Amino acid sequence: MAIFDEIQASIAGLAESAGSSVTGIGQRWGVGSGIVLGEGRVLTNAHNVRGSQVTVTFADGRTAEGTVAGHDFDGDLAVIETDTGQAVALPWATTAPALGMPVFALANPGGRGLRVTFGTVSGIDRSFRGPRGLRITGSLEHTAPLLPGSSGGPVLDAAGQLLGINTNRLGEGFYLAIPADEALRGRVDALGRGESVRPPQLGITITPGHVARRMRRAVGLPDAEGLLIRDVAEDSPAARAGLARGDLIVSVAGQPVRSADDLASALRAAAGSIELTVLRGTDERTIQVGFGQPEGSA
Question: Annotated catalytic residue: which of 20, 150, 151, 251?
Fold first, then answer.
């Protein structure tokens, strides 16, 4: 029974040492959890916040209004600026998680009180769909049970170091977290400085590749891998560049495009403009799409 005594002692110790660093996010609806990053800064998932203001509840029951300093919807991250009082930042882990490693998940769902659960790392480098449907890769999978409203809370090792931020319930007792590595630290620092991530938008609606192939066959066109443009928004970058409904995007920035994730990745890396190769019927053409304001606009 010694191992259960150790787990109980670890849970009690983490509740005392790290509990004050775990917050509730929101009230009534859109509830979640958050992590104190430092004085005046709380990290949570982007899907936990609506608009620019949010209520943050601390372990002692105190509430404070917060302002979203920066958000990354595709990465499901947001940093909130608020009065963190005496709450201290959780230390970041110095070693990467490994399969079978014991972990502890902490949460304060919507400010309804601290929860601490125990599990193990069951997978690494997993992926899931973010709030806008795009794939987030490199996630940490674990088995520490979580209540609804726990997303945004921390995954800790036995020493109380931050291994990840819980973000997605897989069902069947498995949960995903964004790993607390150097890449995340850099992204979070940028969000805290107000540098929200807003990838450029083409202004199009697309049809998945398998549907595009079926539609092309129906009108006698040869098979081709790509994304079919279903609609083009008026006065969008795509419209100004001459893209049209029915165009098949086959490559972006010189790289083949087979999924919406491929297109999203290329857009995130774009700076000012991007080159698309499209099939219009059987005619291949290259189109440069610029993301600046149209002439005469503010």
Answer: 151
Q: What is the pLDDT of residues 246-295, one digit of tens each?
A: 899 999 988 998 888 888 888 877 878 899 999 998 899 999 999 865 54
pLDDT of 5:
85
Task: Report the run of H or E that residue 164 belongs to, with start and end.
Answer: strand 162-171
> Which one from 72, 76, 157, 247 is the annotated catalytic residue?
76
Q: Check: CB of residue 177 under 8 Å from CB of residue 139.
A: yes
Provide the residue count of the chain: 298
d(C-alpha 139, C-alpha 178), whole Å = 5
Residue found under tokens 């540098």:
195
Q: Which of 20, 47, 122, 157 is catalytic?
A: 47
Q: Whole-angstrom Cα distance, residue 86 to residue 112?
A: 19
Mark the ranges of the chain whose per-residue pLDDT is less than 50. Answer: 295-298
Verify whether residue 52 is a known catalytic residue: no
According to the model, what pLDDT value does residue 270 have?
Answer: 80
Residues 178/154, Cβ–Cβ less than 8 Å: no
Angle CA 279–201–266, to nearest 5: 65
Answer yes or no: 262 catalytic. no
71 as an active site residue: the answer is: no
